[in-house]
Amino acid sequence: MKNSRVRIKPRPKSTFDSRPLYMRAEEALAKWIDTMSAGERLPTEPELAKRLGISRATLREAMRLFEERGRLKRRPGVGTFVLPPHPVIDSGLEVLESIDTLAHRLNLQTRMADLSVNTRPADPSDAAGLGITEGTPVVAISRTILVGEVPAAYLTDVVRTGIVSQDELETFSGSVLDLLIRRGDPALGLSRTALNSVSADSTLARHLGVQRGTPLMHFEAVLYTQEGKAIDHSHSHFVPGYFTFHVVRKVGR
Question: Of 155, 158, 97, whose CA–CA distance to 126 is shortest?
């Protein structure tokens, strides 16, 4: 009698999701919201947490993020409701344009809040960006940009003294770039920009109406004249969900 061998099929390998729990919860909640219509009420927290397979604490954190992004609205004692998708400002990065210009193209209204203008010594970062000596006086212009009534970005421009006059600051509408373009002097050349993600500190959280630690898109840029002189070192912080940026790239040969 021949020995028969039983072939045991190997178990399928389980896929391990190494992403942080809050990211997985955010993705699961986003998929759930996408199946609902504006005005619909979410299930209760215990029920929704059970269906998504996460703890209530993790669910609350994910829900908080979607509240900040204008997708959910809590009504104490009533429930949490889905809001209609808000407009998203979509832009390529090949051409430098202000938020006002991008929003106007989509017929969105923007306004400025929390304007702060002060003259201070250049810190090491500003000195490196502007090509000046650390401690040289510079003008810092910070403000919040609201799309509709929602804070969507917090901008800070650090410019050399004399670039923007006091009269111009008194009628300043929110964009240093647009101010310089309208004036036409100095003639602008190009902007060099670094993109990364940062967590909101207490200052950014206060101006943008988000929680500390909320991820923000961050652009750090230096604006140059046609002669190659750096005149503006800026930091732009964007609330996720209100902006989409893309780059058109040629295929290398």
Answer: 158
